[in-house]
Amino acid sequence: xxxxxxKIDEKLVLGTKxxxxxxxxxxxxxxxxxxxxxxxxxxxxxxxxxxxxEHPDKDFGDEEKRKVTxxxxxPPPLIKSLVNLFSSPKKxxxxxxxxxxxxxxxxxxxxxxxxxxxxxxxxxxxxxxxxKLNLLQxxxxxxxxxxxxxxxxxxxxxxxxxxxxxxxxxxxxxxxxTE
Length: 179
Known about the structure:
Blueprint: E1 2-11, E2 16-27, E3 30-36, E4 40-46, E5 49-54, E6 67-71, H1 77-87, H2 89-94, E7 96-103, E8 109-116, E9 121-129, E10 134-142, E11 146-156, E12 175-178
Parallel strand pairs: 6-12
Antiparallel strand pairs: 1-2, 1-11, 2-3, 3-4, 4-5, 5-6, 7-8, 8-9, 9-10, 10-11
């Protein structure tokens, strides 16, 4: 499945806001996200390994290296929740407690406010088009009071993708940190 995303990060304490656009690709427990904003960032999630690639700022020339963080031990809870949301909604729901639910008047749009069992996610809101069974928006506040909103558009379901889309390929010039 392929979705276009618009990501908005609001640092609630600082009052700052940043936006980026990109694409999210999901297939069989694998995720690839590419975001283009102030910087280009790619996220690969394959075989329970999360790889985050921050591309250099183009304003500083081609000398800069990509910063690559590989997390093998414990992937962030939000990534696991996304995988569960797309692959096993029952498992996703077991990670949260429903605080409130509402439907639009015609019953087509569902909004759920959830409390995570993980302390790193303070709150989460999910908006679903019930008629199309389509995720429209995911919004959450993390443990450092950053509110992240992901708006999803142009969903393409049942798209067969090569496994290589989800595989990170290291470049010789990469600065790699493994956690």
